[in-house]
Design a protein that fits this description.
single chain; about 70 residues; mainly alpha; two-stranded antiparallel sheet; 2 strands; about 5% strand
């Protein structure tokens, strides 16, 4: 229950699919496994990777999902 009021937009040039998430230093990027919790794998938009709109989010999800799947 956190009401928000949107007062404006920053424009298309500043648009991102996702911003924030799990800090990359907490993830073993070779396996996508959490360094803090041994049975947790973090992929896609849950990672703290800011990127422009336009397919980057899909590629991130496919790639990290593949890596995690191969290592589970």
């Amino acid at each position: 229950a956190l009401p928000l009021t949107i007062t404006g937009l920053m424009g298309f040039d500043r648009a991102v699919v996702s911003d924030g998430g799990v800090i990359l230093e907490e993830i073993d990027m070779r396996t996508m496994r959490s360094r803090l919790h041994s049975n947790v794998y973090v992929t896609g938009d849950l990672l703290n990777i800011s990127r422009p709109s336009g397919g980057f989010s899909l590629q991130l999800c496919w790639t990290t999902g593949y890596v995690a799947g191969k290592n589970v």
